[in-house]
Amino acid sequence: MTHTSTPLLGGIEAGGTKFVCAVGYPPDNIYALEQFPTTTPRETLGRTLDFFRSQPHLPDAIGIATFGPADVRPTSNTYGFITSTPKPGWRNTDLVGFVERSLYLPAAFDTDVNGAAVGEHAWGAGQDVDNLLYLSVGTGFGGGAIVEGVPVHGLVHPEMGHLNLPRANGDDFKGHCPYHGPCLEGMASGPAIKARWGIPAESLPPDHTAWEFEAHYLSLAVTNLILTLSPERVIMGGGVMQQEHLFPAIRSRVQSYLNDYVQADAIIRGIDNYIVPPGLGDRAGVLGAMGLALSL
């Protein structure tokens, strides 16, 4: 994309619960932002088009950061599709093709968590590092990674939310993932917390047993991912992580599990600045989607 000035960017954070659309010059000059519930593809994508068409100027490019699984391989016949999602009605939905054909604009595409990782690397809590991990604990459980400044892809894309982890002592919950039962998402996502306790996470008091279980699964996952990817920072966002008391519980357990094996000051002495909330807050997803468009 060649421009004599900074490009006007569009972003679509395609979440399983809500879509967030934005136009502007990220991170600070966002001219228009709208969010609406994720219902059927026809209705939700119709509202997305209405948002962009109502702007005084269409953006130069749009980034789409989506819930998944999704096909992020540009050489694939189904590139730009949401694929095997359990979300009713959304399986095999062609997001990139629909947006490009409808708005006559190029669209970049990645997972919602890779998008958020891109946003945090560009403008948030990961600006000073080139290797980071972004975990979103909310409606689902996703993980995105930036390695040497670039989002990680591969056979498809990372599915960190479906790790299998040792159960906490006394935990006999069957799990809430339709594919894997007691995987990380099935034990620690927002819907898993509600299925287990009968009330949503935000309604549970900080001293509830739920948070002991949550800290157990989250800290084990972070430990395993530190050992796998060796990130220079771990950023944890999503609705569940708005329970700020989780951060000290996770940090102390990660240190305990690693047991000084990883000889890095960031973990041994600086863990409060190593496992952190998003610098962009709840805008990480949509700003990250706009950041994806910069690659076009």
Structural summary, described in words:
The structure is a single chain. With about 300 residues, the protein is of the alpha/beta class. About 30% of the residues lie in helices and about 20% in strands. The strands form three sheets. Strands 3-2-1-4-7 form a five-stranded mixed beta sheet, sandwiched between helices. A five-stranded mixed beta sheet has the order 10-9-8-11-12, sandwiched between helices. Helix 1 packs parallel to helix 2 (about 95-105) and helix 6 (about 210-230) crosses helix 7. The longest helix has 21 residues, at about 210-230. About 45% of the residues are buried.
Feature tags:
single chain, 296 residues, 5-stranded mixed sheet, 12 strands
Number of strands: 12
Strand proportion, as a percent range, falls in 15-25%
Low-pLDDT regions = none
Listing every helix as H and every strand as E from the N terminus to the C terminus, the arrangement reads: EEEHEEEHEHEEEHHHEHHEH
- DSSP helical segment count: 9
Q: What is Rg? A: 19 Å
- Mean of all residue-level pLDDT scores: 95
The biggest beta sheet reads:
5 strands, mixed
Coarse morphology: globular
Distance between the termini: 6 Å
Spatial sequence of strands, sheet with the most strands: 3-2-1-4-7
* Percentage of residues in helical conformation: 25-40%
Structural class: alpha/beta
